[in-house]
């Protein structure tokens, strides 16, 4: 089944859970300090990592990785700080997301982050995971772009859906923050400030991350 849930206890809250990256003027989460360097340790086989992919009945195109700054390609690097294994660390300023490994390294991915006025920072957990999630544009987004009105009741998952192949939903306690780590159908946006607050990744990278991350994993988004 294409729309598989991985946390049954939140089914009743689906309209809230599946809202697109909220862009309201709520207070940001607490600021977290960060060591902003990491040393490359190992590169992946990019021809395989970014090859065309069939997933959930959909065809995903290859990523033209040679057209991008190689710093944004998936690679293993030294850990960016003293974090527990399994922690996701997001550095909006450098456009990197790190998944901390048990051996003192991290898998680093390139990301796209929020435009000015839409960014946020702080700590959360992965409260919910979904494959090919439905997209519900928030009211503020519809107000900015009336063409999105037709999706007020949701846009089904698929290659045209801006949430992409996977979604990791960020929670604080029992409250959905409405911020996500998700795929994108705009690969050129990786390495830029382009989203409405959420953290976007290449489809192949979000699938890779999704498969490595557990529910309840800590997420640190840096100021």
Automatic annotation (TrEMBL):
Keywords from the UniProt entry: Cell shape, Cell wall biogenesis/degradation, Glycosyltransferase, Hydrolase, Peptidoglycan synthesis, Signal, Transferase
Organism, scientific name: Stappia albiluteola
Signal sequence residues: 1-27
Domain L,D-TPase catalytic: 86-222
Superkingdom, natural source: Bacteria
Molecular function via GO: glycosyltransferase activity; peptidoglycan L,D-transpeptidase activity
Identification of the protein by name: L,D-transpeptidase
SUPFAM superfamilies: L,D-transpeptidase catalytic domain-like
Keyword Lipid metabolism tagged: no
Record's GO cellular component terms: extracellular region
Protein family per UniProt: Belongs to the YkuD family.
PANTHER family on file: L,D-TRANSPEPTIDASE, L,D-TRANSPEPTIDASE ERFK_SRFK-RELATED
Pfam families cross-referenced by the UniProt entry: YkuD
Active site, per annotation: 182 (proton donor/acceptor), 198 (nucleophile)
GO biological process annotation, one example: regulation of cell shape
Pathway(s) of this molecule: Cell wall biogenesis; peptidoglycan biosynthesis
């Amino acid at each position: 089944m294409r729309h598989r849930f991985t946390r049954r206890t939140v089914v009743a809250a689906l309209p809230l859970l599946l809202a697109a990256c909220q862009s309201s003027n709520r207070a940001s989460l607490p600021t977290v300090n960060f060591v902003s360097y990491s040393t490359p340790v190992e590169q992946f086989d990019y021809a395989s990592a970014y090859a065309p992919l069939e997933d959930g009945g959909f065809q995903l195109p290859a990523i033209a990785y040679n057209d991008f700054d190689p710093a944004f390609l998936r690679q293993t690097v030294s850990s960016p700080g003293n974090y527990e294994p399994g922690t996701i660390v997001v550095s909006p300023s450098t456009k990197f997301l790190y998944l901390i490994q048990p051996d003192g390294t991290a898998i680093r991915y390139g990301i796209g982050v929020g435009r000015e006025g839409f960014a946020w920072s702080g700590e959360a957990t992965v409260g919910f995971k979904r494959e090919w999630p439905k997209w519900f544009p928030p009211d503020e987004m519809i107000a900015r772009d009336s063409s999105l009105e037709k999706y007020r009741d949701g846009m089904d998952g698929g290659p045209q859906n801006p949430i992409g192949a996977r979604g990791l939903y960020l929670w604080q306690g029992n409250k959905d923050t409405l911020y996500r780590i998700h795929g994108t159908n705009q690969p050129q946006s990786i390495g830029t400030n382009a989203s409405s607050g959420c953290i976007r990744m290449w489809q192949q990278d979000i699938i890779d991350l999704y498969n490595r991350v557990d529910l309840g994993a800590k997420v640190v988004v840096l100021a």
